[in-house]
């Protein structure tokens, strides 16, 4: 903990089972009523938290692996990292009462940036209005992001999305079970799901069925590359094996 006014020190609620290096854990607060909650089974490789405001909250759920810099700017912001999330080398930046929500099971490679605001203001000259107010971000469960991905204000990333390396996600892609890539992001493949394991061969129907059920995927509702519904083909083929 860095030296500061004792009244400004954040509340730290860290489960005893958390693997935490005190040499790299910093929670610096310039306001009051800030708190950090880390649930059991987490491995905190590096966590630097700066509160430049009051009444902000960081919650890290169970069994996460975290290497991350977190910045709160202004009051009333929140970040919740779901269980079993891996942040290899990330920056999470929340501004002025907005929030970042990361769903369970996601893995995020080096260079991830998630920002609810731009830090600086863009002002329309004719109207005198600011054009780039901060907005909250939701990353749904089971998202895999490659190297150097940026996720910007107001975005919602749907479940089971794969994000290619170097992608800029600056708008919501209203599809799940897909791959997105590019600057800005666009869908490059539909009807896909990912697994943490590097498989040496194609998965068996039983393995695939189990994976889809665990991820909440209804194959009958998603489309393939041609835009056709998968029902009657893959869905029926897989399910018929277990009747």
UniProtKB/TrEMBL annotation:
This is Acyltransferase. It comes from Neorhizobium petrolearium.
């Amino acid at each position: 903990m860095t030296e500061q006014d004792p009244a400004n020190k954040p509340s730290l609620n860290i489960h005893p089972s958390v693997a935490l290096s005190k040499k790299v854990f910093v929670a610096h607060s310039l306001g009051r009523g800030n708190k950090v909650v880390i649930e059991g089974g987490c491995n905190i490789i590096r966590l630097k938290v700066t509160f430049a405001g009051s009444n902000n909250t960081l919650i890290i759920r169970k069994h996460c692996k975290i290497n991350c810099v977190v910045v709160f700017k202004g009051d009333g912001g929140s970040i919740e990292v779901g269980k079993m999330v891996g942040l290899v080398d990330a920056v999470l930046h929340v501004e002025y009462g907005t929030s970042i929500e990361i769903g369970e099971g996601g893995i995020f490679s080096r260079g991830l940036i998630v920002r609810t605001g731009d830090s600086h203001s863009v002002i329309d000259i004719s109207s005198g209005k600011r054009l780039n107010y901060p907005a909250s971000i939701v990353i749904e469960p089971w998202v895999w992001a490659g190297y150097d991905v940026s996720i910007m204000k107001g975005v919602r990333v749907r479940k089971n999305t794969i994000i290619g390396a170097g992608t800029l996600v600056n708008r919501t892609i209203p599809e799940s079970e897909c791959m997105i890539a590019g600057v800005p992001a666009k869908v490059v493949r539909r009807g896909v799901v990912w697994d943490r394991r590097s498989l040496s061969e194609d998965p068996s129907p039983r393995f695939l069925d189990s994976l889809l059920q665990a991820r909440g995927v209804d194959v009958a509702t998603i489309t393939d590359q041609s835009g056709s519904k998968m029902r009657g083909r893959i869905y029926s083929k897989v399910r018929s094996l277990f009747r």
